[in-house]
Write a structure and sequence with these properties.
Elements (H helix, E strand, L loop, with lengths): L2 H22 L4 H4 L3 H13 L6 H16 L4 E3 L1 H12 L1 E4 L2 E6 L2 E7 L4 H5 L6 E5 L2 E2 L5 H8 L6 E8 L4 E8 L1 E4 L3 E6 L4 E6 L6 H14 L4 E5 L8 H9 L7 E7 L8 E3 L10 E6 L6 H11 L4 E4 L7 E7 L5 E10 L14 H11 L12 H4 E4 L3 E5 L3 H6 L9 H10 L6 E5 L4 H8 L2 H11 L12 H7 L6 H12 L5 H36 L2 H8 L6
Parallel strand pairs: 11-12, 12-15, 15-16, 16-21
Antiparallel strand pairs: 1-18, 2-9, 3-4, 4-5, 5-6, 5-7, 7-8, 10-11, 13-14, 13-18, 17-18, 19-20, 20-21
């Protein structure tokens, strides 16, 4: 952090302290004394700093610095970010109605939302948006896309579009309208008895959406439900509580919170009626991207012995944030309490305060914690092993972690490390296969998206005949005859060393990854999920068959 920013942080800390002191001490002179140097330093910077300093910028930088000093989830939000978040979590916003991606600096239309403004004027999946209101969109960032395409309902935006298959450039004028968002990415039957719901986040409409799809799956004869929370970063606590209520009996504890001073921040949430799906088999899928409200839902169902949790150790976010508005429409989102699961587990993992601690916290979140490095005798816990995954049965671990205080558990140090890692421990801990360096480099460089785009842009590709049918595409499409040369050319363009041994070893997985991206570009997120869940996701297959013991 620069010395100037550090000084600014100190200034604002003192300034805020002064305001608080004036408010709660009647404005007496003694309250001003500790903060006097803040006023002196502020005057020095304003009068003598080599460049002119904007006072608003000083305030924002200081508040941001104060929030970053606390914990990894306390943040300062600029007015624009506040507005964007509010629209997202309310479940609707005004825009043009496309699902998009940015691939190699190119803005790609993945799909036009049915009934939306873009679909109405004929914008299609695969179109490239080259300019927005006569300004080039080449090299645009995702955040810039949102800023340019969202706007007040009824306003217009002009788009220059390239349609690759025909090679034509087309000009569109789109009138922005209300776009409804959903937290349910997909909901369907895996077979005649197992239902599947992919829940991407918890927004204001999540509970209503969830009850609707749950009812539809029940009508189709569902006897086992798989709820997929992988990659779900959380959202509204109340919505997670309502979803949990669909599975629990009246009076069962869902989650409780504890704050420093007690009062309104200390709450207990219990199930009210739970008549949505109280008796059938229930599996919850989690991974290291499942956080906050996702962990509350998984932890509540696990502690109440209502569901079996399958996947990886979750993110470990057990801090409660409350958003406070500031006069300029900015806000500070401040941690005010901690979450606890019904059994008393505190799912927040250990963190260090300050900017360095925050950076380490998020870097650590990307690291897989492997169960075989924590268990004393991992072989005794092995559940199943095949070519793609290894699964450990870990049902007893939550109880072991809770009993650490007694100091009588074998492997105390390793279990203590697991406790410090936080998160929800899955009942069946799944570790995936190790892919070749070639596979991983192609993934990290965005090459699978690019290969999918090249295939779809080629009129000779066999993918063209499946554009109108997701079912036929999933069941019948095979890798292109020129697939290896396509991978070789991508490697050359990306300066990736083509490892033939790695390619032969992982060819089917590379082809599967490309097919997944083609599915997304042709049929949107739900189409891609249907393909992955049915043909390329071993964790879902485990969830569909894992045994459930009744309490």
């Amino acid at each position: 952090m620069s010395r100037i920013l550090t000084i600014l942080m100190v200034l604002v800390v003192f300034f805020c302290g002064c305001l608080v002191g004036l408010k709660f001490n009647g404005g007496g002179g003694r309250a001003l004394e500790p903060q006097q140097k803040m006023f002196d330093a502020y005057g020095l910077i304003k009068n003598y700093y080599v460049d002119e300093v904007n006072g608003d910028s000083l305030e924002s930088a200081g508040i941001k610095g104060m929030a970053e000093f606390l914990d990894p989830h306390s943040v300062y939000l600029e007015p624009e970010k506040v507005s964007y978040d509010q629209a997202e979590f309310k479940g609707n916003f005004d825009g043009i109605g496309i699902e998009f991606d940015v691939i190699n600096d190119t803005l790609l239309v993945v799909t036009s939302l049915s009934g939306g403004p873009s679909a109405a004027v004929g914008i299609s999946a695969g179109d490239r948006i080259l300019a927005i209101d006569s300004v080039s969109a080449v090299g645009i960032t995702r955040q810039e896309v949102l800023k340019k395409l969202r706007g007040a309902r009824g306003t217009k935006v002009r788009l220059k579009v390239l349609r690759p298959l025909s090679g034509k450039f087309i000009d569109f004028q789109v009138t922005r309208g209300k776009i409804s968002t959903s937290s349910i990415d997909a909901a369907f039957m895996l077979d005649n008895r197992v239902g599947y719901i992919r829940l991407s986040r918890f927004i204001a409409t999540t509970a209503v959406e969830f009850r609707q799809v749950l009812a539809l799956l029940k009508k189709q004869g569902m006897a086992r439900l798989v709820i997929d929370l992988r990659g779900n970063p959380g959202g509204f606590l109340e919505q997670a509580v309502e979803v949990a209520d669909e599975f629990l009996s009246q009076g069962q504890l869902i989650v409780y919170t504890k704050s420093r001073k007690g009062g309104v921040e200390d709450e207990r949430f219990v199930a009210k009626s739970g008549d949505g799906y109280e008796k059938g088999d229930l599996i919850v899928l989690v991974d290291k991207g499942s956080a906050s409200a996702s962990e509350i839902l998984a932890g509540a169902l696990q502690d109440n012995k209502r569901a079996v949790v399958v996947g990886e150790l979750t993110f470990g976010k057990g801090l409660v944030q409350r958003q406070f508005s500031l006069p300029d429409s900015s806000a500070i989102r401040l941690t005010v309490a901690r979450y606890y699961t019904p059994s008393g587990r505190q799912i927040q993992r250990v963190y260090r305060k300050g900017v360095a601690g925050r950076e380490h916290y998020y870097q650590e979140a990307m690291t897989n914690i492997l169960p075989q490095k924590l268990f004393v005798h991992p072989d005794s816990l092995l559940y199943v092993k095949n070519g793609d995954v290894v699964v450990y049965k870990t049902n007893s671990l939550p109880a072991l972690v809770l009993s650490l205080a007694g100091g009588k558990v074998n492997g105390l140090g390793k279990l203590a490390a697991l406790r410090d890692a936080g998160g929800v421990i899955p009942d069946f801990w799944v570790t995936g296969r190790v892919y070749s360096d070639l596979y991983q480099q192609l993934y990290q460089s965005g090459s699978y998206d690019e290969m999918a785009r090249k295939i779809l842009d080629d009129p000779r590709s066999s993918a063209q005949e499946y554009r109108s049918s997701l079912k036929r595409f999933i069941e019948e499409y095979r890798e292109e005859g020129r697939f290896e040369s396509l991978v070789v050319n991508i490697c050359k363009a990306k300066k990736i060393a083509f490892d033939r041994v790695g390619f032969i070893r992982d060819r089917k997985y590379i082809a599967r990854a490309v097919k997944s991206k083609i599915t997304h570009q042709l049929f949107g997120a739900e189409g891609q999920i249907r393909f992955l869940v049915r043909y390329a996701d071993p964790v879902v297959k485990i969830a569909a068959t894992v045994p459930i013991s009744r309490p």
